[in-house]
Specification:
alpha/beta, binds zinc ion, binds adenosine monophosphate, TIM Barrel, 16% strand, 287 residues, globular, 2 domains, binds fe (iii) ion, DNA polymerase, domain 1
Amino acid sequence: MIDLHAHTTASDGSLSPAQLVAHAAEIGLSAVGVTDHDTVDGWEEALAASAGTNVKIVPGVELSTSYPRGRFHLLGYYIRPASPVTATLEKIQVARKNRNGEIFENLRELEMPVEESHVRRISGSKSGQLGRPHFALAMIELGYVQNTQEAFDKYLADGQPAYATKAVLTPQDAIEQIHQSGGVAIWAHPPLNKNFSPDELEAELGRWVDWGLDGIETHYSRYTIEQAAWAEKVRLKFDLLAGGGSDFHGTSKPDVKLGQTQTGAALPDEILQKIKARRDAIRAGKP
Ligand code: AMP
Ligand code: ZN
Ligand code: FE
Ligand code: FE
Protein backbone atom coordinates (compact mmCIF):
# COMPACT_ATOMS: atom_id res chain seq x y z
CA MET A 1 0.00 0.00 0.00
CA ILE A 2 1.08 3.58 -0.62
CA ASP A 3 0.45 7.13 0.65
CA LEU A 4 0.96 9.94 -1.86
CA HIS A 5 0.41 12.97 0.40
CA ALA A 6 2.63 13.70 3.41
CA HIS A 7 4.46 16.67 4.92
CA THR A 8 7.83 16.95 6.66
CA THR A 9 9.77 19.62 8.56
CA ALA A 10 10.66 21.08 5.16
CA SER A 11 7.21 22.67 5.51
CA ASP A 12 4.76 22.25 8.39
CA GLY A 13 5.06 18.54 9.20
CA SER A 14 6.63 17.52 12.51
CA LEU A 15 8.79 14.61 11.25
CA SER A 16 12.01 15.20 9.36
CA PRO A 17 12.09 13.63 5.89
CA ALA A 18 14.23 10.76 7.26
CA GLN A 19 11.80 10.21 10.13
CA LEU A 20 8.88 10.17 7.69
CA VAL A 21 10.58 7.47 5.65
CA ALA A 22 11.34 5.45 8.78
CA HIS A 23 7.70 5.72 9.82
CA ALA A 24 6.53 4.66 6.34
CA ALA A 25 8.84 1.64 6.51
CA GLU A 26 7.59 0.77 9.98
CA ILE A 27 3.95 0.65 8.87
CA GLY A 28 4.83 -1.27 5.70
CA LEU A 29 4.19 1.30 2.96
CA SER A 30 5.86 0.56 -0.37
CA ALA A 31 5.80 4.23 -1.43
CA VAL A 32 5.35 7.60 0.22
CA GLY A 33 4.78 10.95 -1.46
CA VAL A 34 6.85 13.80 0.00
CA THR A 35 4.51 16.70 -0.78
CA ASP A 36 5.58 19.68 1.27
CA HIS A 37 3.92 23.05 0.83
CA ASP A 38 5.71 25.10 -1.82
CA THR A 39 9.10 23.41 -1.42
CA VAL A 40 11.00 20.36 -2.64
CA ASP A 41 13.67 20.72 0.04
CA GLY A 42 12.63 17.48 1.76
CA TRP A 43 13.29 15.25 -1.24
CA GLU A 44 17.03 14.76 -0.90
CA GLU A 45 16.98 13.63 2.73
CA ALA A 46 13.94 11.41 2.07
CA LEU A 47 15.63 9.76 -0.92
CA ALA A 48 18.83 9.14 1.03
CA ALA A 49 16.87 7.68 3.95
CA SER A 50 14.91 5.37 1.65
CA ALA A 51 18.06 3.59 0.45
CA GLY A 52 18.06 0.10 1.88
CA THR A 53 14.35 0.22 2.81
CA ASN A 54 11.34 -1.08 0.88
CA VAL A 55 9.90 2.44 0.68
CA LYS A 56 10.00 4.28 -2.66
CA ILE A 57 9.94 8.08 -2.47
CA VAL A 58 7.44 9.78 -4.75
CA PRO A 59 8.81 13.32 -5.11
CA GLY A 60 6.01 15.86 -4.99
CA VAL A 61 5.06 19.36 -3.98
CA GLU A 62 1.78 20.87 -2.77
CA LEU A 63 1.44 24.23 -4.50
CA SER A 64 -0.75 26.95 -3.04
CA THR A 65 -2.71 28.49 -5.88
CA SER A 66 -5.00 31.46 -5.86
CA TYR A 67 -7.17 33.32 -8.31
CA PRO A 68 -10.39 35.28 -8.08
CA ARG A 69 -12.49 32.14 -7.75
CA GLY A 70 -10.64 30.86 -4.70
CA ARG A 71 -7.52 29.39 -3.15
CA PHE A 72 -6.76 25.78 -3.92
CA HIS A 73 -3.98 23.26 -3.34
CA LEU A 74 -2.48 21.49 -6.33
CA LEU A 75 -0.07 18.56 -6.13
CA GLY A 76 2.77 18.22 -8.62
CA TYR A 77 4.46 14.82 -8.80
CA TYR A 78 7.81 14.00 -10.42
CA ILE A 79 8.65 17.56 -11.41
CA ARG A 80 12.27 17.81 -12.53
CA PRO A 81 14.68 19.16 -9.90
CA ALA A 82 15.71 22.20 -11.97
CA SER A 83 12.62 23.29 -13.83
CA PRO A 84 10.01 26.04 -14.18
CA VAL A 85 8.30 24.83 -11.00
CA THR A 86 11.44 24.85 -8.86
CA ALA A 87 12.28 28.35 -10.17
CA THR A 88 8.80 29.46 -9.11
CA LEU A 89 9.22 27.80 -5.70
CA GLU A 90 12.29 29.93 -5.05
CA LYS A 91 10.25 33.07 -5.69
CA ILE A 92 7.48 31.75 -3.46
CA GLN A 93 9.98 31.20 -0.64
CA VAL A 94 11.01 34.86 -0.81
CA ALA A 95 7.35 35.93 -0.80
CA ARG A 96 6.73 33.68 2.21
CA LYS A 97 9.64 35.19 4.18
CA ASN A 98 8.29 38.68 3.48
CA ARG A 99 4.79 37.56 4.41
CA ASN A 100 6.04 36.05 7.68
CA GLY A 101 7.78 39.33 8.50
CA GLU A 102 4.42 41.05 8.16
CA ILE A 103 2.76 38.51 10.47
CA PHE A 104 5.45 39.13 13.14
CA GLU A 105 4.82 42.85 12.75
CA ASN A 106 1.04 42.42 12.96
CA LEU A 107 1.35 40.31 16.11
CA ARG A 108 3.57 42.96 17.70
CA GLU A 109 0.97 45.59 16.93
CA LEU A 110 -1.68 43.35 18.48
CA GLU A 111 0.54 43.28 21.61
CA MET A 112 1.18 39.58 21.21
CA PRO A 113 4.86 39.63 20.27
CA VAL A 114 6.34 36.37 19.00
CA GLU A 115 10.08 35.87 18.40
CA GLU A 116 11.22 34.42 15.11
CA SER A 117 13.68 32.14 16.96
CA HIS A 118 10.74 30.71 18.93
CA VAL A 119 8.74 29.94 15.78
CA ARG A 120 11.90 28.50 14.23
CA ARG A 121 12.44 26.18 17.21
CA ILE A 122 8.81 25.04 17.04
CA SER A 123 9.18 24.21 13.35
CA GLY A 124 11.69 21.52 14.32
CA SER A 125 13.99 22.42 11.45
CA LYS A 126 16.89 24.83 11.03
CA SER A 127 16.04 25.79 7.49
CA GLY A 128 12.51 24.54 6.70
CA GLN A 129 9.92 27.16 5.88
CA LEU A 130 7.84 28.72 8.63
CA GLY A 131 4.08 28.62 8.26
CA ARG A 132 1.06 29.85 10.12
CA PRO A 133 0.61 26.54 12.01
CA HIS A 134 4.05 27.22 13.59
CA PHE A 135 2.97 30.73 14.57
CA ALA A 136 -0.15 29.21 16.16
CA LEU A 137 1.91 26.80 18.29
CA ALA A 138 4.14 29.64 19.49
CA MET A 139 1.04 31.67 20.40
CA ILE A 140 -0.25 28.74 22.45
CA GLU A 141 3.09 28.42 24.31
CA LEU A 142 3.00 32.15 25.05
CA GLY A 143 -0.51 31.84 26.46
CA TYR A 144 -2.11 34.14 23.87
CA VAL A 145 -4.56 31.44 22.76
CA GLN A 146 -5.72 28.03 23.98
CA ASN A 147 -5.35 26.09 20.75
CA THR A 148 -4.49 26.26 17.06
CA GLN A 149 -8.08 26.75 15.96
CA GLU A 150 -8.46 29.78 18.21
CA ALA A 151 -5.19 31.22 16.86
CA PHE A 152 -6.51 30.92 13.31
CA ASP A 153 -10.07 32.00 13.99
CA LYS A 154 -9.09 35.14 15.90
CA TYR A 155 -5.77 36.15 14.32
CA LEU A 156 -4.13 34.08 11.58
CA ALA A 157 -6.89 32.95 9.20
CA ASP A 158 -7.33 34.79 5.89
CA GLY A 159 -8.81 38.20 6.63
CA GLN A 160 -8.04 38.12 10.38
CA PRO A 161 -5.90 40.88 11.95
CA ALA A 162 -2.51 39.12 11.99
CA TYR A 163 -2.90 37.71 8.50
CA ALA A 164 -0.81 38.86 5.56
CA THR A 165 -1.02 37.57 2.00
CA LYS A 166 1.72 36.20 -0.17
CA ALA A 167 1.82 36.20 -3.92
CA VAL A 168 0.87 32.82 -5.30
CA LEU A 169 0.36 31.05 -8.58
CA THR A 170 -2.94 30.77 -10.38
CA PRO A 171 -4.14 27.18 -10.84
CA GLN A 172 -3.74 27.51 -14.60
CA ASP A 173 -0.10 28.65 -14.34
CA ALA A 174 0.62 25.91 -11.81
CA ILE A 175 -0.75 23.16 -14.08
CA GLU A 176 1.20 24.51 -17.06
CA GLN A 177 4.43 24.79 -15.09
CA ILE A 178 4.06 21.27 -13.67
CA HIS A 179 3.75 19.91 -17.20
CA GLN A 180 6.67 22.02 -18.47
CA SER A 181 8.65 20.50 -15.57
CA GLY A 182 7.85 16.95 -16.66
CA GLY A 183 5.41 16.38 -13.80
CA VAL A 184 1.83 15.29 -13.16
CA ALA A 185 -0.81 17.69 -11.78
CA ILE A 186 -3.36 16.39 -9.25
CA TRP A 187 -5.95 18.58 -7.53
CA ALA A 188 -5.58 18.09 -3.77
CA HIS A 189 -8.72 17.75 -1.63
CA PRO A 190 -11.19 20.05 -3.44
CA PRO A 191 -12.71 22.14 -0.62
CA LEU A 192 -16.16 20.57 -0.52
CA ASN A 193 -16.88 21.68 3.01
CA LYS A 194 -15.86 25.31 2.50
CA ASN A 195 -17.65 27.91 0.38
CA PHE A 196 -18.40 25.69 -2.58
CA SER A 197 -21.34 23.46 -3.43
CA PRO A 198 -20.56 20.18 -5.21
CA ASP A 199 -21.96 21.70 -8.44
CA GLU A 200 -19.73 24.77 -8.16
CA LEU A 201 -16.69 22.59 -7.55
CA GLU A 202 -17.59 20.42 -10.51
CA ALA A 203 -17.71 23.55 -12.71
CA GLU A 204 -14.36 24.56 -11.23
CA LEU A 205 -12.93 21.17 -12.01
CA GLY A 206 -14.13 21.49 -15.61
CA ARG A 207 -11.99 24.64 -15.99
CA TRP A 208 -8.95 22.89 -14.55
CA VAL A 209 -9.45 19.97 -16.91
CA ASP A 210 -9.43 22.46 -19.81
CA TRP A 211 -6.08 23.72 -18.47
CA GLY A 212 -4.71 20.16 -18.55
CA LEU A 213 -5.28 18.81 -15.04
CA ASP A 214 -4.27 15.13 -14.83
CA GLY A 215 -6.03 13.90 -11.72
CA ILE A 216 -7.93 14.52 -8.50
CA GLU A 217 -7.51 13.20 -4.98
CA THR A 218 -10.16 10.51 -4.58
CA HIS A 219 -8.62 9.37 -1.30
CA TYR A 220 -8.01 11.78 1.56
CA SER A 221 -8.05 11.32 5.31
CA ARG A 222 -10.45 14.18 5.89
CA TYR A 223 -13.00 13.30 3.21
CA THR A 224 -16.34 12.06 4.39
CA ILE A 225 -17.59 8.97 2.59
CA GLU A 226 -19.94 11.27 0.59
CA GLN A 227 -17.10 13.59 -0.42
CA ALA A 228 -14.98 10.65 -1.55
CA ALA A 229 -17.93 9.39 -3.60
CA TRP A 230 -18.26 12.85 -5.21
CA ALA A 231 -14.53 12.88 -6.05
CA GLU A 232 -14.73 9.45 -7.67
CA LYS A 233 -17.85 10.45 -9.62
CA VAL A 234 -16.26 13.58 -11.10
CA ARG A 235 -12.99 11.74 -11.69
CA LEU A 236 -14.85 9.29 -13.93
CA LYS A 237 -16.86 12.04 -15.61
CA PHE A 238 -13.69 13.93 -16.65
CA ASP A 239 -11.59 10.80 -17.20
CA LEU A 240 -8.96 11.82 -14.64
CA LEU A 241 -6.34 9.89 -12.71
CA ALA A 242 -7.00 9.05 -9.08
CA GLY A 243 -4.64 10.27 -6.38
CA GLY A 244 -4.55 10.92 -2.69
CA GLY A 245 -3.24 9.97 0.68
CA SER A 246 -3.41 10.90 4.31
CA ASP A 247 -2.01 14.48 4.25
CA PHE A 248 0.07 13.36 7.22
CA HIS A 249 1.63 16.21 9.25
CA GLY A 250 2.73 14.34 12.41
CA THR A 251 1.90 16.12 15.65
CA SER A 252 0.72 19.23 13.77
CA LYS A 253 -2.42 17.24 12.83
CA PRO A 254 -2.46 14.47 15.42
CA ASP A 255 -5.68 12.86 14.20
CA VAL A 256 -4.22 12.15 10.74
CA LYS A 257 -2.27 8.88 10.52
CA LEU A 258 0.24 8.06 7.80
CA GLY A 259 -1.19 5.47 5.40
CA GLN A 260 -4.83 6.20 6.25
CA THR A 261 -7.46 7.78 4.03
CA GLN A 262 -11.22 8.19 4.48
CA THR A 263 -11.68 4.42 4.53
CA GLY A 264 -8.95 3.95 7.15
CA ALA A 265 -6.88 2.17 4.50
CA ALA A 266 -3.97 3.28 2.33
CA LEU A 267 -4.07 3.54 -1.48
CA PRO A 268 -3.45 0.61 -3.80
CA ASP A 269 -0.17 0.58 -5.74
CA GLU A 270 -1.93 0.76 -9.12
CA ILE A 271 -2.77 4.42 -8.51
CA LEU A 272 0.95 5.18 -8.56
CA GLN A 273 1.55 3.05 -11.66
CA LYS A 274 -0.98 5.18 -13.55
CA ILE A 275 0.57 8.43 -12.34
CA LYS A 276 3.99 7.22 -13.54
CA ALA A 277 2.53 6.24 -16.91
CA ARG A 278 1.10 9.76 -17.24
CA ARG A 279 4.48 11.26 -16.32
CA ASP A 280 6.14 9.24 -19.06
CA ALA A 281 3.48 10.34 -21.58
CA ILE A 282 3.90 14.00 -20.58
CA ARG A 283 7.66 13.74 -20.99
CA ALA A 284 7.21 12.07 -24.35
CA GLY A 285 5.09 15.06 -25.37
CA LYS A 286 1.77 13.19 -25.63
CA PRO A 287 -0.18 13.70 -22.41
P1 AMP B 1 0.73 29.09 5.44
O1 AMP B 1 1.28 28.18 4.39
O2 AMP B 1 1.75 29.61 6.37
O3 AMP B 1 -0.15 30.17 4.87
O4 AMP B 1 -0.23 28.17 6.34
C1 AMP B 1 -1.17 27.35 5.70
C2 AMP B 1 -1.61 26.25 6.65
O5 AMP B 1 -2.34 26.84 7.74
C3 AMP B 1 -2.59 25.30 6.01
O6 AMP B 1 -1.93 24.20 5.41
C4 AMP B 1 -3.41 24.82 7.17
O7 AMP B 1 -2.74 23.76 7.84
C5 AMP B 1 -3.41 26.01 8.12
N1 AMP B 1 -4.63 26.81 8.02
C6 AMP B 1 -4.94 27.74 7.09
N2 AMP B 1 -6.13 28.32 7.32
C7 AMP B 1 -6.60 27.74 8.46
C8 AMP B 1 -7.79 27.91 9.24
N3 AMP B 1 -8.73 28.81 8.90
N4 AMP B 1 -7.94 27.13 10.34
C9 AMP B 1 -6.98 26.23 10.68
N5 AMP B 1 -5.85 26.02 9.99
C10 AMP B 1 -5.65 26.76 8.89
ZN1 ZN C 1 0.28 21.62 5.79
FE1 FE D 1 -3.54 20.90 1.32
FE1 FE E 1 -1.12 18.73 2.43
